[in-house]
Design a protein that fits this description.
23% strand, two-stranded antiparallel sheet, 32% helix, alpha/beta, Rossmann fold
Length: 142
């Protein structure tokens, strides 16, 4: 067995043999209405070892969260179709699921600090994938 992947172990029922347990990668919810941009964002996280689910708008993202998905990070564009834009989505997530990290992206200038939920990170488009992954790791391991 590769020692890099060894984690805490549990005893196998009836045999007393340890079963290895492996850490589960954090789940990232990528919310973006443009399919190609959404796929690029999802690929960045998947390539960095995260699990990814995708939503096309704020309503769909809320639906995932309400159905118990164990999301650790919300990655959302500000401009989304429908009744919940990215900023409103970020605030709802902060209010209801405070442990979820938030990264907001936009092709527009950064909103004023008081418009962003506490603890979230902002990246302008086009964003640096390495910086996004670095912030994702910070927000999902805190």
């Amino acid at each position: 067995m590769d020692a890099r992947h060894a984690g805490p172990s549990t005893a196998m029922p009836g045999r007393g043999l340890p079963l290895p347990t492996f850490p589960v990668p954090a789940l990232v919810l990528v919310v973006e209405d443009e399919a190609l941009v959404r796929a690029m964002g999802a690929d960045i996280f998947a390539d960095a070892g995260f699990r990814v689910i995708e939503a096309v708008n704020g309503e769909e993202a809320i639906e995932f969260l309400e159905h118990g998905c164990e999301v650790k990070l919300l990655f959302t564009d500000i401009n989304l179709p429908g009744t919940i834009d990215g900023l409103a989505l970020a605030w709802r997530v902060r209010d209801r699921w405070a442990r979820i990290g938030i990264i907001i992206v936009s092709g527009r200038p950064m909103p004023h600090a008081d418009e962003l939920p506490i603890g979230c990170r902002f990246h302008g488009k086009p964003y640096d994938p390495e910086a996004v992954v670095r912030h994702a790791r910070e927000l999902t391991t805190a």
